[in-house]
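Researcher: Here's a chain I'd like modeled. Treat it as a single chain, no partners, no ligands.
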Amino acid sequence: MSQQQARTTQRRRRRELALNLGAVAGLVCIVIAVVSMTFGIKPLVFRSGSMSPQIPTGSLAVARTVPAAQISVGDVVSVDNEAGTRITHRVVAVDPAGGDKVALIMKGDANRVADPTPYLVDHADRVITSVPFAGYVAAWLSSKTAIFLGGVLAGALLMLAFGPLRRSSNDASNDTHQTETLDEPADSSEAKLQEANCG
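Model: Modeled as a single isolated chain. Structure tokens:
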């Protein structure tokens, strides 16, 4: 295998790798989007230690939206307070509030007392599971730096995926010239040999 063929093979392999990585990343994004829309799944990042030690600061939780009728004492749910601030605490009491709504009394595991005001809701995001400290990674991925680096990586993958595979015309010309140059001595030797035989 010539050096040019080896370089072409390497470029082809890099292109296949880039396409495979892009396909996997795209598939993961599609799966996450479908699961989120179908089952009401959403991520939650814990920015305080009010739910420690079970859910420490920086944890990443996965929550599912459920109707108020399915909320029970002991559940960890996430709701908005009157000021629009997201609160994720444990339910310590559930009181009917008429219709499909309930009044939730909530308390952080690390807090000594319950939240001062009940939360009137007809649905809430109930925590399914959590991963300690993964929230720091999620927060970084949403930062401007991560977005910029992601764009650079995407550009690099595109260059690898769609870079030229064919040899340049200059390389082809050089190969042709080299072939012709190598053929000339052989022709001259044959001519000299024929002349010698004729004499």
